[in-house]
Amino acid sequence: MQQPTPDPDQEGTQAIDRRGFLGAVAVAAVVPLPASAAAGGTAVKPLGPTGVPIVVNGVEHKMDLDVRTTLLDYLRDHLHLTGTKKGCDHGQCGACTVHVNGRRINSCLTLALAHEGDEVTTIEGLGAPERLHPMQAAFVAHDGYQCGYCTPGQIMAATALLEEPCGPTDADVRECMSGNLCRCGAYANIVAAIQQVRREGGR
Ligand code: FES
Ligand code: FES
């Protein structure tokens, strides 16, 4: 059976339409959408309220931040407290551990503006070179580190652990510290340091 002869005018129209369609797709891919459209109709508010108070290492600061700023980035980039480390930025390594109102948290997983009125303690607020916290001194005594990158988070987790219902054995300590990874593998010495402080009742 003979196929109908294509109508050149019609084919040209379809070709233009395809080109037009592909062009529109390409433009849509590179032209940024308005914030309200990108957020599915909910307007993105990049700046947070001004003057929101937060206490870090005993000093009150007024936050004036992009609402998306994590507590970790606030501490490091705004307050320049770089002792708190960014390892994974996804809650998987514990390098960013700080205390909020006495309890340990991963500061990469929480927004700074969520901590209005909270008291945050970082490794800089725990001790000083001439006045080490007992846990810092124990890490030094037991060589509880190699490169030291994970160490601030390990020490913040370890000091919080002193106030937690952790069992007495080394295995209990390893379990309680399992959220803090050490790529250098200093785990045995870290546990030894923590157990010494626990035995001596250090705080
Ligand atoms: S940087 Fe926060 S858990 Fe790894
Ligand atoms: S001491 Fe290097 S990652 Fe722990």
TrEMBL record:
Organism: [Empedobacter] haloabium
Protein keywords: Iron, Metal-binding, Oxidoreductase
Span of domain 2Fe-2S ferredoxin-type: 50-126
Domain of life of the organism encoding this protein: Bacteria
Gene3D superfamilies listed in its UniProt record: 3.10.20.30, [2Fe-2S]-binding domain (1.10.150.120)
Alphabetical list of SUPFAM superfamilies matching this protein: 2Fe-2S ferredoxin-like (SSF54292), CO dehydrogenase ISP C-domain like (SSF47741)
Pfam families: Fer2, Fer2_2
Name of the protein in its database record: 2Fe-2S iron-sulfur cluster-binding protein
Matching CDD domains: fer2 (cd00207)
Iron found in the keyword field: yes
